[in-house]
Design a protein that fits this description.
Structural class: mainly alpha
Order of helices and strands: HHHHEHEHHHHHHHH
Helix content: over 70%
Strand content: under 5%
Number of strands: 2
Largest sheet: 2 strands, antiparallel
Length: about 325
């Protein structure tokens, strides 16, 4: 076993937790807006992939990663709009439509790699977002290692989490969005268009999922690789369930799953690569094992009452 400073290890684990947890938290927050409005969105994985690919393509042609981040988020919202139209306007099956969004995201990005770079596996490297350097933290144990140099998207994630909480619980918009998923007939009776709020909720889910994907490709790495989200959209759904469809719950659950995802790297530092290699497959499976446990209902979570139920305006009282 390698000898390592416990404070250094703790700081590194905290840093990898934030790095790995950020896209999961963003995906979970996105799923929250969709599902609190009453629309199931299992297509987060496809929206993250689309965001990751679009961010790299835009950055590749403009050499502006911030523009890539913006348009990557927008591309996730565009895919979510398709899901919203199918589920809200045409009353389609939410699971079937969400599965279609995953397949569409995979197909578009795989084809895009071939069209833009002439390869199927990994794009060329592009200019990534520069890490935020905070002076004066280097000498602080744990905190210095974790926060002295992080992607700006990670700091944005903290702000977005707070804004999601405020928007959901402190504004009329949040009240109406929650009503669309809990009691849409009452919302309709009050003169509010249920379909509009559901469509907005789904689009917001795609924008946040696209942002999480864009972070992976130009905030954490500097290229797009085929299926690089690696199931993070599904883990985001599990974090949403663990978090009981609340912003703070999504944040805490996302950090937990991020810790499990980053555990491999921390153990490699503490124990050495050779020692970890024997258990690598099990360590990599841990987040997905927790997903299964979450979906099996080990934690009592109460979904919105009207989730997955199409609202027919003519049925109102």
């Amino acid at each position: 076993m390698l000898q390592i400073d416990p404070a250094l290890l703790a700081g590194y684990l905290l840093k990898t937790t934030l790095q790995m947890g950020t896209p999961i938290i963003l995906a979970a927050l996105g799923g929250m807006f969709s599902e609190r409005s009453g629309i199931v969105n299992i297509g987060l994985e496809g929206m993250m992939l689309t965001g990751a690919f679009s961010a790299v393509v835009v950055t590749y042609f403009t050499v502006n990663p911030w523009l890539g981040l913006l348009l990557g988020s927008a591309s996730g919202g565009l895919l979510a709009l398709i899901h919203a139209i199918v589920c809200v306007k045409f009353k389609g099956n939410h699971i079937v439509s969400g599965t279609g969004m995953i397949l569409l995201g995979m197909g578009i990005t795989t084809l895009g790699l071939q069209v833009v770079w002439g390869i199927r596996g990994r794009s060329d490297e592009v200019a990534g977002l520069e890490n935020v350097q905070i002076p004066g933290l280097d000498g602080i144990p744990v905190i210095g290692t974790a926060f002295s140099s992080l992607s700006p998207v990670i700091y944005m994630m903290f702000i977005i989490t707070f804004l999601c909480w405020y928007l959901m619980y402190k504004t009329p918009f949040g009240l109406r969005l929650r009503a669309a998923g809990e009691d849409p007939s009452t919302l309709d009776t009050a003169g509010v268009n249920v379909e509009t709020y559901r469509i907005i909720g789904v689009i917001m889910s795609g924008i946040l999922a696209g942002l999480g994907g864009a972070y992976l490709s130009i905030g954490y790495e500097n290229a797009f690789a085929k299926n690089m989200t690696n199931g993070r959209g599904f883990i985001g759904l599990a974090a949403l369930i663990f978090g009981n469809w609340t912003p703070i719950g999504c944040f805490i659950a996302g950090l937990f799953f991020g810790f499990l995802s980053g555990l491999e790297y921390g153990l490699q530092i503490a124990l050495g690569t050779n020692a970890v290699r024997a258990y690598l497959s099990f360590i990599q499976m841990l987040p997905f094992i927790l997903v299964i446990i979450a979906l099996a209902g080990i934690r009592r979570s109460v979904p919105p009452k009207a989730i997955g139920v199409p609202y027919e305006k003519e049925k109102r009282a």
